[in-house]
């Protein structure tokens, strides 16, 4: 009887442990699938947003396999997923249609991606993914921080293998407190490796990425002078000539891109990359538009689309900016800023059309066509002036930006009539009246003086020299790598 | 039906009695007070950051919230598991030491019924402590964010099922002992090894590289243990859950599976406990 009870209990234990093994395998499969799923989301987003087709090698010289693996996953899923009608936005920059999986990730069809990631159809790719993950040959999961040359030869400071039990995130917080302390002590050299430690411990610490990039792009460079062109060095990784100051902007970009690899659905990182670095620091409006357009795909704050439309305007995409502001006003009735920017972009569109008509008039050989184009330019300029005059501030005065634009149009007419001194006087007035017009008006003044053969001021001469020097180095071919 | 109800009523009486007795333990109250102090203190920890970080604006607030979340999750993990181990290790040995078990078992109460009552009583204590800590965490987070942190409930639920596994195996060890010291140490060991189970897979992956039979055998043993032993790292999702999006397909699938996983191993632990206890000389 006693033995019988033992046998029953032993059998019961074996059955329950067997169930435990089965359930354990199920849970393990789900955990692995979750990792794979998150990697697909991250990698599909990166492949669409970033230009880095080849991710290179890791510190040990092993090839990073994200792109190859994504290629295999995309190839399999192309056969599995149903065909969809493509829209205007569904093509890459080379005009190729985006793959179905990439579209799914972009449109946040997460359930469908999860079904694929956890199903049998991608079993081989999932297996390959886990193998690459073990070998630390993937960058889009929390296995490695690839932030370029910033940390080369500098230790991380924390042995990850010693930290378990899920307390890593807490450790990341305390490391961040230390980063903050070093920053206020001015110990940047200590701060940088700790920043890496922090996001290695907790790759989802988005604020660490944001503030870290802010330190790199703004605070560290605040007291540094712009590097003269001849002192800049060619950086093949960034395909640009950079000085000691400028490199920090690119390190901030690397840092934020690393954050995006680990957190592909967080608008804040795209926003900071587009607005804070590309727009404000590098004046690279095309890239600013690219990343801000990505930011608004995900759940975002109200100001994000506003900054996108401003960058669209800065990039000369007035029609898109106007459409954006109109949409914004529809969603936020009575929004004063939107109303103002709608008028502003209408005025800019008119000016752009007038400039194009003027350009046509200059280029055509047919006097009748030239006359017609000039008349069109004149009409469009008048329409633009009407728009600018309708832009009034709270006190009833004309908006400084609108006022500056009117002056610019007046100056263009005076230049056309070869009344250069009057045009220069108006432009001088305009550039102090409107901040936004300062660079453009300064450039127009220099061009007018050169055209009229008038002497340049010392600062203008320096500006011309700087421009020529920049132009000379810009045209230099990248140095050949030694074989 | 009446027999089943009678059986359950007997077990429930023992559970309630175990719970009342357990809640009076000074060590337990000490752990609870410490955990509450840490959770409450997490709001003050952020003062270090607020004094030093100037100009970061919204990010500063986000870091404060993150600090509160991480400190509270860690505090609940540490103190919660200490409470779970301590209580599971002591409910049976204390009664054996005090000879109360003889009085109880001399009544018409089966050993299975007694043990079930003790186990459920221990779980009641763990659940109530976890609810207290989780509740305070909930309030701290709500006070900071002014948004109902509903995902926190899932995190606390998963934490409980992790503790359930640790508690069940500690309880099994406690049935072999006459004092709470050995099971407490064993409980800590179970928690640590349960979190290191993943390393057994590494051993399996690396074994066989030399091509020697002994090496391969070690690999096979490691793989067998990896399959059978409970892997507490499976519950690591509880740490990430607070940062996931509201609609996250893997989370929705993983939570019920993790609950089932915890329950299966808890039953296994309980069977071992009963197997040991039914042969115990009492």
State the main characteristics.
heterodimer; A: about 475 residues; mainly alpha; two-stranded antiparallel sheet; 19 helices; 2 strands; about 65% helix; elongated; B: about 280 residues
Record the strand order, biggest sheet of chain A.
Answer: 1-2
SSE order of chain A, as H and E? HHHHHHHHEEHHHHHHHHHHH
**What would the average pLDDT of chain A be, to the nearest integer?**
85
Helicity level of chain B = over 70%
3D shape of chain A: elongated
Low-confidence stretches of chain B: 50-55
Query: How large is the count of helical segments of chain B?
Result: 10
Q: Report the strand count of chain B.
A: 0
Measure the end-to-end span of chain B: 30 Å
What's the layout of helices and strands?
The complex is a heterodimer of chains A (483) and B (282).
Chain A: H1 2-49, H2 66-80, H3 100-106, H4 110-118, H5 123-134, H6 168-185, H7 188-201, H8 206-219, E1 233-235, E2 240-242, H9 246-262, H10 267-279, H11 285-295, H12 303-314, H13 318-331, H14 336-363, H15 367-390, H16 400-416, H17 420-433, H18 438-452, H19 458-474
Chain B: H1 2-23, H2 26-52, H3 58-98, H4 100-106, H5 111-145, H6 151-174, H7 181-206, H8 213-228, H9 237-240, H10 249-278
Structure description:
The complex is a heterodimer of chains A (483) and B (282). Chain A contains 19 helices and two strands. By secondary structure, chain A is an all-alpha fold. Chain A has a two-stranded antiparallel ribbon. Helix content of chain B is 82%, strand content 0%. In chain B, α5 packs antiparallel against α6. The two termini of chain B are 30 Å apart. About 2% of the residues of chain B have low confidence.
What's a concise summary of this model?
The complex is a heterodimer of chains A (483) and B (282). By secondary structure, chain A is mainly α. Chain A is 66% helix and 1% strand.
């Amino acid at each position: 009887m006693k033995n019988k009870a033992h046998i029953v209990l032993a059998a019961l234990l074996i059955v329950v442990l067997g169930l435990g093994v089965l359930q354990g395998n199920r849970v393990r499969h789900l955990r692995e699938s979750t990792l794979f799923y998150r990697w697909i989301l991250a990698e599909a987003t990166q492949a669409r947003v970033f230009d880095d087709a080849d991710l290179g090698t890791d510190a040990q010289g092993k090839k990073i396999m994200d792109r190859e693996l994504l290629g295999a996953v995309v190839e399999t899923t192309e056969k599995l997923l149903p065909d969809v009608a493509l829209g205007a936005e569904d093509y890459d920059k080379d005009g190729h249609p985006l793959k179905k999986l990439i579209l799914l990730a972009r449109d946040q069809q997460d359930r469908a991606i999860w079904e694929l990631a956890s199903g049998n159809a991608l079993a081989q790719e999932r297996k390959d993914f886990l193998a690459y993950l073990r070998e630390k040959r993937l960058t889009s999961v929390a296995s490695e921080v690839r932030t370029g040359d910033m940390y080369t030869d500098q230790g991380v400071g924390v042995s990850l293998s010693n930290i378990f039990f899920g307390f890593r995130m807490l450790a990341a917080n305390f490391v961040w407190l230390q980063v903050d302390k070093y920053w206020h002590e001015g110990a940047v050299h200590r701060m940088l490796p700790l920043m890496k430690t922090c996001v290695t411990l907790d790759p989802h610490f988005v604020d660490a990425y944001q503030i870290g990039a802010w330190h790199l792009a703004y605070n560290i460079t605040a007291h540094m002078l712009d590097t003269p062109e001849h002192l800049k060095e060619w950086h093949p990784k960034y395909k640009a000539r950079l000085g000691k100051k400028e490199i920090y902007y690119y390190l901030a970009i690397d840092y934020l891109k690393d954050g995006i690899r680990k957190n592909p659905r967080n608008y804040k990182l795209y926003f900071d990359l587009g607005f804070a670095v590309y727009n404000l620091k590098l004046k690279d409006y095309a890239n600013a538009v690219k990343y801000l357009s990505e930011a608004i795909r995900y759940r975002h704050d109200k100001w994000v689309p506003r900054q996108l439309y401003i960058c669209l305007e800065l990039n000369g995409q007035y029609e898109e900016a106007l459409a954006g502001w109109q949409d914004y006003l529809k969603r936020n009735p009575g929004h004063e800023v939107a109303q103002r920017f709608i008028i502003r972009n209408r005025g800019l569109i008119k000016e752009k059309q007038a400039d194009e008509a003027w350009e046509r008039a200059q280029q055509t050989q047919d006097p009748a066509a030239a006359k017609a184009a000039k008349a069109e330019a004149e009409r469009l300029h008048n329409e633009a002036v009407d728009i600018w005059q309708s832009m009034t501030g709270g006190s009833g005065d004309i908006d400084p930006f609108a006022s500056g634009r009117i002056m610019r149009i007046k100056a263009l007419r005076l230049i056309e009539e070869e009344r250069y001194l009057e045009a220069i006087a108006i432009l001088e007035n305009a550039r102090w009246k409107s901040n936004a017009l300062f660079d453009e008006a300064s450039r127009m003044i220099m061009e007018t003086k050169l055209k009229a053969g008038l002497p340049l001021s010392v600062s203008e001469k320096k500006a011309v020299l700087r421009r020529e020097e920049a132009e000379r180095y810009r045209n230099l071919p990248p140095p050949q790598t030694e074989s | 039906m009446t027999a089943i109800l009678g059986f359950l009523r007997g077990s429930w009486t023992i559970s309630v009695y175990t719970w009342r007795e357990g809640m009076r333990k000074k060590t337990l109250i000490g752990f609870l007070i410490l955990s509450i102090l840490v959770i409450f203190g997490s709001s003050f920890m952020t003062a270090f950051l607020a004094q030093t970080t100037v100009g970061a604006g919204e990010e500063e607030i986000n870091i404060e919230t993150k600090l509160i979340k991480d400190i509270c999750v860690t505090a609940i993990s540490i103190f919660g598991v200490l409470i779970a181990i301590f209580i599971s290790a002591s409910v049976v040995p204390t009664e054996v030491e005090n000879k109360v078990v003889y009085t109880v078992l001399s009544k018409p109460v089966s050993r299975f019924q007694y043990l079930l009552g003790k186990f459920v009583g221990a779980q009641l204590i763990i659940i109530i402590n976890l609810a207290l800590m989780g509740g305070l965490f909930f309030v701290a987070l709500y006070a900071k964010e002014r948004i109902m942190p509903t995902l926190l409930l899932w995190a606390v639920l998963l934490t409980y099922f992790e503790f359930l596994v640790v508690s069940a195996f500690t309880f099994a060890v406690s049935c072999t002992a006459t004092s709470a010291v050995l099971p407490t140490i064993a409980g800590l060991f179970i928690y640590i090894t349960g979190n290191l189970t993943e390393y057994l897979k590494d051993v399996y992956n690396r074994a066989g590289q030399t091509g020697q039979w002994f090496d391969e055998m070690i690999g096979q043993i490691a793989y067998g243990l990896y399959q059978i032993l409970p892997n507490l790292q499976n519950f690591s999702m509880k740490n990430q859950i607070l940062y996931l999006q509201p609609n996250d397909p893997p989370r929705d699938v993983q939570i019920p599976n993790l609950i089932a996983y915890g329950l299966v191993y808890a039953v296994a632990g309980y069977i071992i406990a009963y197997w040991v206890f039914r042969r115990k000389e009492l």
